[in-house]
Amino acid sequence: MAGSLLKYGMAFVPDPGEADIVVVNTCAFIEAAREESRETILSICDLKKEGSCKAILVAGCMSQRYKNNMQELFPDVDAFIGLDELEKIGEIAEQIITGDNKGLVEVSDEAVKLYEPEFPELVLTGGPYAYLKIAEGCNHKCSFCAIPSIRGSRRSRSLDNILSEASRLLENGIKELDVIAQDIMAYGKDIDNGVGLPTLLKELSSLGGDHWVRLLYGYPTGVTNDLLAVMAENSVICRYLDIPIQHSHPDILKGMRRAETADQLEDMITRIRNTLPGVALRTTCLVGFPGEEEEHFGHLLDFVKAMRFDHLGVFVYSPEDNTPAFDMKNVPEREIAEERRHELMIAQRDIVDEKSQELINTEANVLVEQFHPEDDGIFIGRSERLAPEIDGEIFIRGTSEEDIGKFIKVRYIKQLDYDMVGKKVE
Ligand code: SF4
User: Fold this and answer.
1) Which atom of ligand 1 sits closest to the CA of residue 217?
2) Does 306 share its domain with 376?
């Protein structure tokens, strides 16, 4: 979208208050995400009323999912585009900025496209890392999840296209490629050439230069021995895996239509840790799913305590239209589900404290990313154990501006909640 806007002569400004046109890219897979999208759209509508913004364009999953209602919900928005209309954004932006085409809705019935960056790529992360999307859509049928109905079935990008995008990013100074898809483990299963995630990772590792490759969002049962072997052999691939388990109790996993059992999950985690010593594991759990009783939740709590994940996210179940779980009975009260979420996070807090203490006085390779905004002389970076935006950070002493965008050796000094403080090792 940024490339298309550039092509139509738009320039980017850091503050929406300075923009002639504001693009809101929305999320809509659960109620909390919709609420955030709604609030953002309405705050931009206020900007428009105050006169600083001339036009608003809403893109993303919310436009796609609620294409028939968006205009009514947000009458001050000038245009809505769906997931298959991204390359039209420059043209549409140009039209609406002049006041033409008010209330335009360009959303196809179904998302089927697979985008390749055909414009100059812009990395908007603000750091020396970039997300590398390897596939779009999902073929799993998790009963609670609206994503396949919004983003369509899985379609994988070709190996050549991914590698050429990755090369361009690295040539332009990117130091960390964050591999993403709805399920990265399923990469290539829809292309009949035997190329899967292990092959892709081998190729990404051999691109040369000084970089990291990080794997985000993988369906747990997709972690194969081949994949672990490639990760073990290539130091470019971060010893980090993000594998959302959602739950551990067999009855709940069955209700969620997830293929795995708690035993399989435990075996998988042991296999990963044996093959990749020191690996950092992130997972996500869903509490308050229909039929979740205290006994089921207790099972999950025990599992999380026993598995000692390095990073944990917990969501409360959100009933979603057009999903099999929507009509399921015995949904725990919201308050109870929130309490369960809290209880899991408290248990995880203890695990994080223990693990952080174990790191003190050890050393790690750290990617220096930016100045500390409030503390002169302190810089912020991440080790391979920390993914951008979602995990903690490392506050580094004894380094300088010249190290931004470079890997340096850091010794951990102390823990600061979910973050760490460290000192550059000369
Ligand atoms: S694997 Fe993830 S995106 Fe796909 S259906 Fe399940 S929860 Fe949704």
Assistant:
1) 2
2) no
